[in-house]
Design brief:
- This protein has 119 residues and is an alpha+beta fold.
- 28% of the residues lie in helices and 43% in strands.
- The chain contains three helices and four strands.
- Strand 2 and strand 3 form a beta hairpin.
- It holds the Pfam family Ribosomal_S6.
């Protein structure tokens, strides 16, 4: 399991909720755990994109934080490549940072230091 961000943008239509629901359900069917869904808003695309015999200049951007097996990446890319509402999709692996404590450092008791200075 690894944590990943899934960024995609799609056509702006009244059925935006339906596109999001389909996408999240497809992720969950493949074993992903969706942690967060963030709407990044409507923006101009970085460049004109031709998809499904149309040219697109604007799109709605969404970011989905998920945790799942690496095997879902290729199946989701294929699945969303066939979805006519999705213009572009991308998975970005997000490494989990582990904090480790240094065993060589002894914590300082600041109360003792403060009392020692007062004497």
């Amino acid at each position: 399991m690894y944590i990943s961000h899934f960024l995609f943008f799609f056509l702006l239509k009244p059925d935006t909720a339906a596109v999001l629901k389909r996408t999240v359900e497809a992720l969950m069917e493949r074993g992903a755990i969706v942690r967060n869904l963030e709407n990044l808003g409507e923006r101009s695309l970085p460049y004109k994109i031709s998809k499904h015999k149309e040219r697109h200049r604007r799109g709605g951007y969404f970011l989905i934080d998920l945790e799942g097996p690496p095997s879902i990446v290729s199946t989701m890319m294929d699945h969303l490549g066939r979805d006519i509402d999705v213009i572009r999709r991308a998975f970005i692996k997000h490494p989990v940072s582990k904090t480790e404590e240094c065993s060589g450092i002894i914590p300082v008791n600041y109360e003792d230091k403060l009392i020692a200075k007062k004497k």
